[in-house]
Amino acid sequence: MKLNSVLGQKKLTLSFEVFPPKADSDYESVKQAAYRVAKLHPDYMSVTYGAGGSTGGSTIALAEGIQKEHGVTTIAHLTCVGATKESIQNALGDMKNAGIENVLALRGDRPAWMKEEPFTDYHYASDLVETIREFGGFCIGGACYPEGHPDAKSKSEDIKNLRKKVDAGCEFLTTQMFFDNNIYYNFLYRVRSAGIEVPVIPGIMPITRASQVDNAIKLSGCNMPERFKNIVDKFGANKNAMMQAGIIYASEQIIDLIANGVTNIHIYSMNHAQVVKGILDNLSEIRKGAW
Ligand code: FAD
Fold this sequence. Notes:
Elements: E1 13-18, H1 27-38, E2 44-47, H2 56-70, E3 73-79, H3 85-98, E4 102-106, H4 125-135, E5 139-144, H5 155-168, E6 172-177, H6 181-193, E7 200-204, H7 212-220, H8 226-235, H9 239-259, E8 264-267, H10 273-282
Parallel strand pairs: 1-2, 1-8, 2-3, 3-4, 4-5, 5-6, 6-7, 7-8
Helix pairs in contact: 1-2, 1-10, 2-3, 3-4, 4-5, 8-9, 9-10
The site of flavin-adenine dinucleotide has 24 residues, from strand 3, strand 4, helix 4, helix 5 and strand 6.
């Protein structure tokens, strides 16, 4: 199923992200973790891609397995890092053969181990979007950054570049994580003012371990509200309490988004079925949609 047939409609969708293993030897255990998420019946699942192609084959294999064995639609991520025109054609051909109909087109970041220039044939995600559109047969998504992409000169420059990505054929956008919904609402206002009309799906990251905080800030440059810092400060040392508090914080963000008319929400679930289940349990009545 192509995601453009369900996104941007009135029906609520909750999607969950999983990642493939870096080492082939871990494939079975990671697959089982991703399948446990699939068994909870999300509306769709996204499977990340290790920039530089480190997870290329397993991204496609995992996405294919989730669709075939659990009937959950997937979107496979793909990046420009180290990619050539030929490698992208091959990856798209493999996806098509695997029955994958949705691609999240990303630039990616230069991995620390990569010595050579990472962006030769493809410099920006919009270049990749163009190739995927020309290839045909895929619904194409892209990423966006409510707090601005770290490389962007300014937020307005970033939104101008986002417009180029959408004009190239990107049919929906998923946001970087944020921990204060007002940041998303302000961003949506600026995106719509720039004439970008595609669905902008908020990405929610449940922080369920104190050790995730620094990494989340480093990866995304996102702002941590005092309210959340206080939660980590109080419960961070107790594994179970932090898990519960993190699930509730993410659930509250989701409930607020739904209450403000957002119908598609993406959750960075990081292969944790327990976190997915906790969020779904908190939304059990809300998901019935009888309001
Ligand atoms: P782009 O859209 O290319 O933007 C990158 C920068 O270039 C921005 O500053 C933008 O303003 C600027 N820019 C864009 N177009 C132009 C232009 N034409 N001219 C000048 N400047 C331009 N990384 C992975 O490695 N694997 C994943 O699976 C993965 N999944 C992700 C999923 C989501 C939802 C998000 C939000 C991020 C994900 N990332 C992933 C991280 C992502 O690859 C990085 O954030 C990367 O730095 C930017 O990727 P992008 O596709 O947003 O880049």
